[in-house]
Amino acid sequence: MTLLTRRAMTTAALAGTFLPGLARAQGKKPLVIAHRGASGLRPEHTALAYELAIEQGCDFIEPDLVPTKDGHLVARHENEIGGTTDVAARPEFAARKAAKTIDGQKIEGWFTEDFTLAELKTLRARERLPQLRPASAAFDGQAQILTFDEVVAIARAASKRTGRVIGVYPEMKHPSYFASIGLPVEERMLAALKRNDLNAADAPVFVQCFEVTPLKTLRAKTRAKLVLLADAEGGPPDLPGVKYADLLTAQGLKGVAAYADGLGPHQSLVIPRAEGLLPATTLVKDAHAAGLQVHPWTVRAENYFLPPALRRGDAARPDYMALHGDVEPLLKALYAAGVDGVFSDFPALAVAARA
Q1: What's the CA gap between 69 and 188, in Å, rounded?
Q2: Does residue 313 come out as left (phi exceeding 0), alpha (psi in the -120 to 50 range) or beta?
Q3: What is the CATH code for 11-78+125-354?
Q4: Distance between CA 345 and CA 298 in Å, rounded?
Q5: For residue 195, is pLDDT > 70?
């Protein structure tokens, strides 16, 4: 995959190729957002995962973005790459192993900010959860780390090939941490949006983040759609003392709408769970009242990620947690709650349930 060149498409071509499809995708049907690609079936954040997700009918592909030592934005779930690449088996990089504290958590491993892009390109991707996804692990070693521009190129080429919009849904990972080490993400994100003709409200892109301040910084400089991510516990790393629960009240959501176009809540904030699924909360209604779209994350098919009532198979089997349960009721409950999109590691399942 070659880098997407600056101005790969003219504004007119962008409008003609992408925007009608975007309007269709954002019509009556909720969006299906391929979480790191079809990451339940192929190593995450690879061309293999993104291409399969597109084949399965997703509307958006999601790259988590972290910077390299020389300032490129690359698609990795975390800046620690010991679990998702073969770096630990590469003797030339053994001395790069380090221990760091990121958002209050001490982590040991290899970090993207200690590698140039050229060095990262020599690595090969691996399945992050091989115990749960051995079929995906069979693809270990087959794919490189991608830059954000390369992910955009995949989406753009697929849009031309399929005749339907494929948007991109980048996440800025740990922006406060990266700012503290001299690699701020926000300006790099903004430059990437401009470089790829995505710096507009009607562009096929959402930019997401668990932190508030970076979204406010971008809001002042772009009309591209922004999304605040919210977990079921804790709060934004950049706002000590503030809990996500504080931001998700009816009044708090009005404040979120001042700097974001959407909300990305943990799925349990929309459909709570116990042994099974509980009735929907009022979060979607409250967010819509504040003018926010709602895209909950992340629906996965393995028993491990489902409540007991939706698990399937023989519980005595050693691979029971890796077996796929009945995920359709969860997807349909989210759709019935009125969400505007759903993140899933298994886009085909999300597309089927939506139909």
Answers
A1: 13
A2: left
A3: 3.20.20.190
A4: 7
A5: yes
| Alpha-carbon gap, residue 185 to 193, rounded angstroms | 12
Residue 134, pLDDT > 50, answer yes
Give the number of C-alpha atoms closer than 13 A to the C-alpha of residue 83, restricted to the C-beta side. Answer: 12
pTM of the predicted model over 0.85: yes
Q: Domain map of the chain by residue range?
A: 11-78+125-354
Q: Side chain identity at 220, as an amino acid letter?
A: A
Helix pair 347-354, 328-336: axis angle to 10 deg = 50
Per-residue pLDDT reduced to its tens digit, 147-166: 999 999 999 999 999 999 99
What 6-11 contacts at long range (C-beta under 8 Å, 24+ apart), as own/partner pairs, is 6/195, 7/197, 8/153, 8/156, 8/196, 8/197, 9/156, 9/197, 11/197
Q: 68: which 2 tokens?
A: 């390299």
In sequence order, the β-bridge partners of residue 78 are none
